TrEMBL record:
Organism domain of life: Eukaryota
Organism per entry: Panicum virgatum (Blackwell switchgrass)
Record carries keyword Kinase: yes
Short name of one Pfam family: TPK_catalytic
PANTHER family: THIAMIN PYROPHOSPHOKINASE (PTHR13622), THIAMINE PYROPHOSPHOKINASE 2 (PTHR13622:SF6)
Name of protein: Thiamine pyrophosphokinase
GO molecular function: ATP binding; kinase activity; thiamine binding; thiamine diphosphokinase activity
Biological or metabolic pathway of the protein: Cofactor biosynthesis; thiamine diphosphate biosynthesis; thiamine diphosphate from thiamine: step 1/1
Broad class of enzyme this protein falls into: transferase
Keywords noted in UniProt: ATP-binding, Cytoplasm, Kinase, Nucleotide-binding, Transferase
Role noted for this protein: Catalyzes the phosphorylation of thiamine to thiamine pyrophosphate (TPP). TPP is an active cofactor for enzymes involved in glycolysis and energy production. Plant leaves require high levels of TPP for photosynthesis and carbohydrate metabolism.
InterPro entries found in the cross-reference section: Thi_PPkinase, Thiamin_pyrophosphokinase_euk, Thiamin_PyroPKinase_B1-bd, TPK_B1-bd_sf, TPK_catalytic, TPK_catalytic_sf
Biological process, per Gene Ontology: thiamine diphosphate biosynthetic process; thiamine metabolic process
EC number(s) from the headed UniProt entry: 2.7.6.2
């Protein structure tokens, strides 16, 4: 008999356990993550994301959003004390959008201001993720989760640059967030298991390659599953799909983007 050794691909597990739930079981703590705040309106659940993050970085004009908008999102009575409570560890970027008084305020409160105005080759988000990449030891990279707020729903060139960052730093788990959905990259190096937090995400979802086509993608757990299917722009991509199980499994010969809707968490 002929024996063949087939090396099965490692599984990468994903869950959106960082999303605020009304009733979180005590045995399911929020995983630690780094938070990057971009220059778009803050999501409703920002105070809860902020409180559970272990590192908070504002990308340039993202600092204006914390300064201006955090008060409206909290139930605090006093704008000044709210401002004093939400201090980012780092403000990173080319500093062409942060207002002078905001920069002054946060530097006086101890934020590190990293002025990269000489670099007009990469976006502010790219600069933030580079810093996180650099400071994370190799063996911890695959575990670290980076949440990026305000990444979607604005200027399309910014959105494309934000998605490009997922590909540039594919050894980090980066989640792009808006009020309405999230996006993550599923690298082709792994099989993927997505554990759906159905009280806060779904049911609408999408799965598609950007850049390089897929000739073979298989899924379980969706209403319209793929079975060794081809996907590329200009042909079929899976959009307006529906999650039908607590676990979605994906395997592909191409890097894919996974997107899922977020429920109204007001
Ligand atoms: N409308 C938007 N849509 C999506 N992402 C955005 C948008 N505006 C800003 N961002 C994100 O926030 C980051 C910081 O924004 P900021 O406005 O400071 O950028 P910028 O360098 O001034 O950009 P530009 O000069 O192209 O307007 C950007 O790198 C980008 O990732
Ligand atoms: C081919 C090419 N296209 C656009 C830019 C401009 N650009 C890209 S990122 C960035 C910084 C934004 O904060 C700027 C100005 C470039 N350098 N190279």
């Amino acid at each position: 008999m002929l024996w063949r050794t087939v090396r099965s691909m490692d599984v990468m597990m994903h869950s959106s356990s960082f999303l605020p739930k009304l009733h979180r079981p005590a045995n399911r703590p929020v995983k630690n993550y780094a938070l990057v705040v971009l220059n778009q309106h803050l999501p409703r659940f920002m105070p809860r994301l902020w409180d559970h993050a272990n590192l908070r970085i504002c990308a340039d004009g993202g600092a204006n959003r914390i300064f201006d908008e955090m008060f409206q999102l909290t139930n605090d009575g006093d704008e000044k004390s709210t401002r004093n409570r939400y201090i980012p560890e780092i403000i990173e970027g080319d500093m062409d959008s942060i207002r002078p008084e905001v920069k002054l305020f946060y530097s006086s409160q101890g934020s590190k201001i990293s002025d990269k105005s000489h670099n007009q080759e990469t976006s502010d988000l790219h600069k933030c993720i580079s810093r996180i990449h650099h400071r994370t030891p190799e063996h911890e990279k695959h575990n670290l989760c980076v949440l990026v707020t305000g990444a979607l729903g604005g200027r399309f060139d910014h959105e494309a640059a934000n998605i490009n960052v997922l590909y540039l730093f594919s050894d980090l788990r980066i989640v792009l967030l808006s009020d309405d959905c999230l996006i993550r990259l599923l690298p082709k190096t792994h099989r993927h298991e997505l554990y759906i937090e159905s009280s806060v995400e779904g049911p609408h979802c999408g799965l598609f390659p950007v850049g390089a086509p897929s000739t073979n993608t298989t899924t379980t757990g969706l209403k319209w599953n793929l079975s060794e299917s081809k996907m590329r722009f200009g042909s079929m991509i899976s959009t307006s799909n529906i999650v039908q199980s607590e676990k979605v499994a994906v395997q592909s010969d191409a890097d894919l983007l996974w997107t899922i809707s977020l429920r109204n968490m007001a």
